[in-house]
Amino acid sequence: MRVLALYNIKGGVGKTSSAANLAYLAAREGRRTLLWDLDPQGAATFMFRVKPKVKGGARKLLEGGRRLEAVIKGTDFEDLDLLPADFSYRKLDLALADMKKPARRLASLLQALDDEYDEVFLDCAPSISLLSESVFVAADALLVPTIPTTLSLRMLDRLERHLVKRRRFRRARILPFFCMVDCRKKLHREITAGVGVQPEFLQTSVPYSSLVEKMALNRAPVNRFASWSAPAKAYEQLWAEIRERVPAG
Amino acid sequence: MVQTEVAFTVADEAGLDRVVEALGDRYALESEKAVRQRTYFDTFDWRLWRRKSRLWLQPSASGPQLRWQSEGRARAERLDLRSDDLQTIGFAADLPASPFRQKLASVITMRRLLPIVEVKAEGRLLRVLDRRRKTVVRLVAEVPAARAPGSRQRRRPLAPILIVRGVRGYPDDFRKLVRFLGKELGLEEWDADEFEAGSALGGFGRAGEYTSKPNVPLDVATPADEAVRQVLRALLGAIEKNHAGTVADLDSEFLHDFRVAVRRTRSALSLTRKLWPEARIEPLRREFSWLGKLTGPTRDLDVYLLELPGSTAKLAESVRRDLEPLRELLEARQQGAQRRMATELESARYRELIEAWRAFLEHPPADEERPEAAREPIGTVASRLIRKAHRKVLKRGRKISDDSPPEDLHRLRIDCKKLRYALELFRTLYPPEEIDRPVRALKRLQDNLGAFNDYGIQKRMLVGLAEELIDADSGGTTAVMALGRLVGELEQGEARERSRFAEAFGKFSSAKTVERFRVMFVDGGSE
Ligand SMILES: Nc1ncnc2c1ncn2[C@@H]1O[C@H](COP(=O)(O)OP(=O)(O)OP(=O)(O)O)[C@@H](O)[C@H]1O
Ligand SMILES: [Mg+2]
Questions:
Q1: Across chain A, what does the average pLDDT equal?
Q2: Per-residue pLDDT band at A151 (split at 50, 70, 90)
Q3: Which tens digits make up the pLDDT trace of B290-306?
Q4: What is the rounded average pLDDT for all residues in chain B?
Q5: Do B170 and B286 share a domain, yes or no?
Q6: Domain boundaries of chain A, sorted by first residue
Q7: Among B177, B164, B187, which Cα is nearest to B10's?
Q8: Of B64, B190, B422, B432, whose CB count within 10 A is highest?
Q9: Tens of pLDDT along A153-205?
Q10: Are B360 and B451 found together in one domain?
Q11: DSSP 3-state assignment of B300?
């Protein structure tokens, strides 16, 4: 099982859109895929038409066992399942803090699903918290959607330093990629050209496109309703690259 | 586990349309066209089918995939392939290294995967939506059609099918829909499967039809010659079924099974010599002996190539690399032997033997030609023959000491084989649970003698090859030195087996085992 987290401290950078499209592409290949919506806002849950409700709430879920399996829902797409968000996820951090080894919690919960899924995507809320620490431990790679601005790059730098400092996070590789790239903007062109060659960056950028915004309306990934489009092609290429770079766990 | 898939049969395409219509009246449905294509594989002896598993090749968005659905698993395992060329799927070893391959290899071992049937199903994927327009059940309504893999024949339609698949987390919707289809629309659950339905198209018979161990139930009261003829007819069937695969060298098991059937035929004939008019049987025995000799060299090389990985496993990696010229030489030899054998197996002489043999089996000798023994019931004759063969093994074995030469063990091995053939030939005359024990006792002794013999043969063959490698110019010496190591391993094995003989024979000739034989094969039949 390969665990990929869509993560960025910053909000609104394309985490959810990317998680949905990449998970859809994995499932389309016949990989058994789970998308876990860890954001109490539940954008991914909404997109897949699932009720944002987890029986027993965050606390119960963290206890693990069969509870995790029981709340998973199939989506409109074959081989793609969703672990929905719940409003109580806001209190996930408090619940985690009460537990032993909170940072390892997510990893051990996912371990129980090892037989059932080939790919797990974690759609994270924008923050640094106990939960995100738990994500850093569980994930084989952090996929970091990054809007090409100087500020974003600086934040990326900070994230990297944060992870390097802590030994147990080192397993997760940081793989940033550019998202919402607008070729008409000079700054975007310059920044993507400048760091695009850095080895840790994924080479594929996702262009800015109103089709991505339509995902929430259509309740489907771009790769589903506009597979011919530029962002869909980009996500396909991105997925191929990720598959190549991150060994299946 | 909760059942999450149910399939229903529908009589014809129009019926399927009506069902879909009825569903549309009751549920909110989303429909799209769907095409499914699969090429199923199995071995000649249906190893996958026997384990209730299915292996198939299918196209996917990321390229061709091999999928393997085994019993009790919720989902098929998959292996990504680079090419969907049917020719590239053969032996397990040819597939990309993976746990999938490893597991498959443990099931099919040396057998080749043969394309059995190609199924293409055109139809619709239907999604049942709830109030939020969320998919809660999936349906596949399709009309599958089958043809021989890789052929251009018209596909033969199979019965239309409606598959209902539960969506995780919506068990109630699944249950309700299944009830609607079964109770209200009165559809019958599907109980066949497309692999079995189309299995004959591959040209290897129906699924499960071939088995390397045909079972011919005999009746103790049948006249002896007629009973033996029944067994011989089954063996002729095995010879003929394996002929094409042997000639084409699809895998080494065709020749193996071919030879087993020939050997059983020969031993049955020599064992039951007194049941036939000599003039008719003698020429046939001579020809079968020719067939046995003809196929020997290729089989020996096959065995050697099959065992090479095992026998070199203990050697260091570098030594194994040095043995590469040996493997190449063996492979070249095998190909040469195989070609020569194939030519003979397609000759007029072979065809005439088979025709004459069939004629003999189908037209029994006239009553006045039949020897006295042929009219006796098979029950009596069989027990007599087994007793005789058993006595012979005991007599020869008891004379063997730790100092006896290998030739003595070789002769004992042959006698054991004859006894074994007799037991196997007449197996069905005795209660299965009772005949198993003497057979097992004998088998343990045979394993010891066989292993001892194999080590000797391999050793002599290697020494012969060493001489050839010395004459060869490139890489000769390193290979010969590596070969020396291998010979050393074989000698150790040989000595080990020799030292175990006394115990193996001791068990077989123990009072308990002897008594068991005596009781089982009493004078006067099996009653
Ligand atoms: N490539 C793109 N082109 C245009 N708009 C995009 C693109 N990717 C995402 N968006 C839009 O940007 C907004 C934020 O995207 P998204 O929800 O994927 O980001 P996020 O990082 O998950 O946000 P949050 O931090 O709020 O969870 C959404 O309205 C989305 O439709
Ligand atoms: Mg989001």
A1: 89
A2: confident
A3: 999 999 999 999 988 98
A4: 90
A5: no
A6: 2-245
A7: B187
A8: B422
A9: 888 888 888 887 776 666 678 899 999 998 888 888 888 877 755 668 898 99
A10: yes
A11: helix
Token representation of residue B391:
């006595």
Judge if B168 and B248 occupy the same domain: no
Taking the CA of residue A216 as reference, the ligand 1 atom at the shortest distance is: 31
Query: Which long-range contacts does B437-446 make (Cβ < 8 Å, 24+ apart)?
Result: B437/B516, B438/B513, B438/B516, B438/B517, B438/B520, B441/B507, B441/B508, B441/B513, B441/B516, B442/B416, B442/B508, B444/B504, B444/B507, B444/B508, B445/B416, B445/B504, B445/B505, B445/B507, B445/B508, B446/B413, B446/B416, B446/B417, B446/B420
Window 8-37 of B: residues touching A by CB (8 A cutoff) are none
| Span of A6-15, B111-120, B323-332 with lowest mean pLDDT | B323-332
- Residues B136-172 pLDDT 10s: 999 999 999 999 998 998 999 988 999 999 999 999 9
**Strand B28-42, strand B54-58: pairing:** antiparallel
Domain CATH for B76: 2.40.320.10
- Residue B9, domain extent: 5-202
Residue B470 pLDDT exceeds 80: no
Q: What is the 3-state secondary structure (H, E, C) of chain A?
A: CEEEEECCCCCCCCHHHHHHHHHHHHHHCCCCEEEEECCCCCHHHHHCCCCCCCCCHHHHHHHCCCHHHHHCEECCCCCEEEECCCHHHHHHHHHHHCCCCHHHHHHHHHHCCCCCCCEEEEECCCCCCHHHHHHHHHCCEEEEEECCCHHHHHHHHHHHHHHHHCHHHCCCEEEEEECCECCCCHHHHHHHHHHCCCCCCCCCCCECCHHHHCHHHHCCCHHHHCCCCHHHHHHHHHHHHHHHHCCCC
Side chain identity, residue B219: D
Closest atom of ligand 1 relative to the A20 alpha carbon = 18
Do B402 and B298 lie in one domain? The reply is yes
Binning pLDDT at 50, 70 and 90, where does residue B211 land? confident
Residue A187's pLDDT is 80
Report the topology of domain A2-245: Rossmann fold (3.40.50)
Residue B215 covered by a domain: no
Q: Is residue B208 part of a domain?
A: no
Is residue B427 within 8 A of residue B479, CB to CB? The reply is no
Report how far ligand 2's centroid is from the alpha carbon of B22 (Å): 41
Q: What angle do CA B261, B266, B270 make, to 5 degrees?
A: 150
Q: How many domains does chain B have?
A: 2
Read off the tokens for B76. 């098929």
Task: State which H helix or E strand residue B33 sits in.
Answer: strand B28-42
pLDDT at position B475, please?
57
Tell whether B50 and B84 lie within a shared domain: yes
Answer yes or no: do B394 and B461 share one domain: yes
Beta bridge partners, B8, equal B162, B189
Q: Which of B31, B66, B167, B170 is the best mutation test for A, with the most CBs of A within 10 A?
A: B167
Is residue B196 located within the same domain as residue B240? no
Residues with CB under 6 A from ligand 1: A 11-17, 39, 43, 126, 179-180, 206, 208-209, 212-213, 231
Amino acid at B407: E
Residue B207 lies in a domain: no
**Six token digits for residue A93:** 């951090």
End position of a domain, from candidates B202, B236, B257: B202
**Contact at 8 Å (CB) between B118 and B149?**
yes
The ipTM estimated for the assembled molecules is 0.88
**Are B324 and B456 found together in one domain?**
yes
From B140's Cα to the closest Cα of chain A, the distance in A is: 12
The CA radius of gyration of chain B, in Å to the nearest whole number, is 29
Residue B185 burial class via C-beta count within 10 angstroms: exposed 0-12, middle 13-18, buried 19 and up? middle
**pLDDT at residue A190 in the model:** 81
Chain B, nearest residue to A48 by Cα: B134
Nearest CA to ligand 1 atom 23: A12
